Amino acid sequence: MKKLLVLAAILVTSAGIAQTEFKGRGDREHRGQHQPRFERMMDDYTPEQMATLKTKKMTLALDLTEKQQKELLKINTEVAKKHKAKFEEIKAKREEAKAKGETPQRPTSEERFAMQNARLDEQIAMRTKMKSLLTDEQYKKWSEMKESRKDKMKEHFKGRMEERKEGQGRRR
Known about the structure:
mainly alpha, signal, LTXXQ, LTXXQ motif family protein
């Protein structure tokens, strides 16, 4: 009888612990404590540092010349400064809403269209700059690297969306 009571107590305790851990994952405050890698990088590095690291990675992958490295560093620095400014703007809006006790407002459809349009314009400009900077072979490899990274991101987010759906199904 004692063994049965001990076994029942262990089962109840482990089930309770598992429930609190599962609930913690869905809690907004808990999620706020974990910063995605991109946010940590934006907080830790200056735009110049981010551009330097990206340029060096691309130098290793594409075997760039000195001249190409210098030009690419300028391009990457410019892009990193824009990204940092946009990140800081979004972060400030989020903190302002949090201070007011509100949830951050999602952009309207017009704002989303404008943001996507601007992002695509930047991508076109970057592609044009890279095409003029790199050799045909380097440009081809760069394009393949971008596609590979894009595919990895799609898989990552697909997996996260599936996890969310599974988590919502369990809560009901």
